Amino acid sequence: MLDWATIAVVFGGMMLFFVDSLDTKGLLGNIFAVISGVGFGLFPVFMRMQKDGSPIESVILGNIITAAVGLPFILRTTPSSTEWVYLIVLGIVQLGIPYILYSIAIKNATAIEACLITVIEPILNPVWVLVFLGETPGIFSIIGGLIVVVAVTLRCILGSISYQE
Q1: CA 20 to CA 23: how far, in whole Å?
Q2: How does pLDDT run along the chain (165 residues), one tens digit per residue?
Q3: CA separation for the pair 97, 77 (Å, rounded)
Q4: Is 105:90 a contact under the CB 8 Å cutoff?
Q5: Is 77 helix (H, G, I), strand (E, B) or coil?
Q6: Whole-model pTM?
């Protein structure tokens, strides 16, 4: 019951992200964001299904497929040497290391913990946009982000208490 309540609260908080900027000019971007979110939501489900196997192999395969799909786009405009450095650092620090750690941790996490921890990343996106680009998120986005963070935190706390008993 705790898991379903947490999922409902998280979805409610995430819906608030769309309230501030709901218009038709960004519709295609919003559609792709939802598709991306669904795909990213399925990631921990499929990783969890492999907890007794070797989930790192699926991560490697997924990144190879992503690189193959993205290759035609990078060939259209060759990145500068500075951009190559950014790509390499982001590939290692933002994706590589976290994927390795997640692949190790997924063997010990419950399914709901594995799913909920991935919710934090998209919630932090507006924070990074604010810090690095100065774009201020709307009040509903802030409230939605807080709801999600509090729900995930409470779920982890309450879940760990019930496991100890």
Answers
A1: 9
A2: 777 888 888 888 878 877 766 666 666 776 777 777 677 767 777 887 887 888 888 888 888 998 898 888 888 888 899 999 998 998 899 888 988 888 888 888 776 677 667 767 766 777 777 888 888 878 887 888 888 878 877 877 777 666 555
A3: 27
A4: no
A5: coil
A6: 0.60
Write down the residue that tokens 């919710």 correspond to.
Answer: 119
Burial track 79-97 (b if 16+ CB lie within 10 A, e otherwise): eeeeeeeeeeeeeeeeeee
Calculate ∠ Cα 26-10-118, nearest 5°.
Answer: 80
C-alpha torsion sign, points 44, 45, 46, 51: positive
Residues found in the chain: 165
For Cα atoms 50, 53, 54, give the angle at the middle one, nearest 5 degrees: 95
Residues with Cβ within 8 Å of 74's Cβ and at least 6 positions away in sequence, in order, are none
Q: What share of the chain is helix, strand, coil (3-state, %, to 5)?
A: 80, 0, 20
Look up residue 93 and give its DSSP letter: I
